[in-house]
Amino acid sequence: MEYVYLIIAIAVVLFATTGALVGNTVRRRRRLPPARTGAETPPAVEKSAVEQAGSEPASGVGLLERPAAPAARTAADETDVVAAPPAHEVPAPSAGRLVRLRARLARSQSSFGRGLLALLSGDDLTDEDWDDVESTLLLADVGVTATSELVAALKERTAVLGARSWSDVRDMLRDELLAQIGTTADRSLRTAADGRPGVLLVVGVNGTGKTTTCGKIARLLVADGKSVVLGAADTFRAAAADQLETWGGRVGAVTVRGAEGGDPASVAFDAVKRGIADGADAVVIDTAGRLHTKVGLMDELSKIKRVVTKQSPVDEVILVLDATTGQNALVQARVFTEAVDITGVALTKLDGTAKGGIVIAVQRELGVPVKLVGLGEGPDDLAPFEPEGFVDALLGDPVR
Ligand SMILES: Nc1nc2c(ncn2[C@@H]2O[C@H](COP(=O)(O)OP(=O)(O)OP(=O)(O)O)[C@@H](O)[C@H]2O)c(=O)[nH]1
């Protein structure tokens, strides 16, 4: 009988031991996938490694939050760790943008371009007609001197032509407007000079579209295959740096920023340093443009330029002007030219005005070319300025 009790006891012990072992193995198997996530996710809702990789944030921040368990990592886990680079936008190439966006100049086209064509197409032009031509030019913000020159040239040519077809008038007007705008200036943005990044300083009064223009310039350069570093040297308004960072982030451009209210020159210096270290093609620096005192503005801009120059020459100083502000834009332009040597103008909001003639007035006033025109609020609504494309957009289709 004692043997029977002994056998039963041994059987009970064996059964208990086997049960525990099987239980552990099953539990361990169930826990394997959660080693990737650190959570006891029920198997029924677990995703495959590929599915999980697809749903991870591109930054890989989620991965860092998991408990480190290198010994338990599998090949699938390693693939997952290499987070996909964030997908950056690659805007369409910049060439021909102005022509593609010509419809945005509709307001200038109807009153300035077509208005002039209609006036000049009359058979016998009276003094009254010429007065109308003059006021059309002045209302389009062409400026007094350029208007006088244009009227004189047009009077002479109509006298020589005599009877004129519509296309004769269009050709004549096209020639004279192009002569005023100029077709020989270098309107390209200088980038990647002598194996170092081109440095572009963007200046202008707040509200002219300066920060968005910096972002759009970055997109233009990326569209043309260049790499860009942005410098948020408008430390006066924290939102400007955030805005710039968002613009840059979309096309993979790093933004160097400083503390709110910090020294703009030091941010500009760091941005150029970063651009050189990264081997970037261009460094685009946004600046604050408060015009409270001319002296303050001059000091700030010349300090930025001086500090940046310790590392690299400044290749471009782009003045951003709001085309809708007319004469005010010219007053601002004058102040900025006294503070810093402007190399080109970005004329924004041309889509919102009938005063396309400001292109002529600004160039005359500053003696520097309009290099860029803003034709809308969209990310790719900034176009390299092309005189012929611009004049053709104003005058409409040559064939009638
Ligand atoms: N219609 C139109 N709007 C534009 C154009 N360029 C800029 N804007 C708008 O103008 C407004 C002001 O632009 P910002 O870039 O913030 O102006 P800012 O000069 O940098 O001002 P701060 O950031 O304060 O220095 C925004 O709503 C832009 O979308 C343009 O070409 N056309």
UniProtKB/TrEMBL annotation:
Spans through the membrane: 6-26
InterPro entries, sorted: AAA+_ATPase, P-loop_NTPase, Signal_recog_particl_SRP54_hlx, SR_rcpt_FtsY, SRP/SRP_N, SRP54_GTPase_dom, SRP54_N_sf
Listed GO MF terms: GTP binding; GTPase activity; signal recognition particle binding
GO biological process: SRP-dependent cotranslational protein targeting to membrane
Membrane topology: Peripheral membrane protein
Locations listed in the record: Cell membrane; Cytoplasm
EC number: 3.6.5.4
Catalytic activity: GTP + H2O = GDP + phosphate + H(+)
GO cellular component annotations of the record: cytoplasm; plasma membrane
Residue ranges occupied by any SRP54-type proteins GTP-binding domain in the UniProt entry: 369-382
Entries under Pfam families matching the protein: SRP54, SRP54_N
Keyword Hydrolase assigned: yes
Positions of the UniProt region annotated as Disordered: 32-62
Domain of life where this protein originates: Bacteria
Binding site for GTP: 204-211, 286-290, 348-351
Sorted UniProt keywords: Cell membrane, Cytoplasm, GTP-binding, Hydrolase, Membrane, Nucleotide-binding, Receptor, Transmembrane, Transmembrane helix
Subunit structure: Part of the signal recognition particle protein translocation system, which is composed of SRP and FtsY.
Family: Belongs to the GTP-binding SRP family. FtsY subfamily.
Role this protein plays: Involved in targeting and insertion of nascent membrane proteins into the cytoplasmic membrane. Acts as a receptor for the complex formed by the signal recognition particle (SRP) and the ribosome-nascent chain (RNC).
Protein name, per record: Signal recognition particle receptor FtsY
Lineage, top ranks: Bacteria, Bacillati, Actinomycetota, Actinomycetes, Frankiales
Gene: ftsY
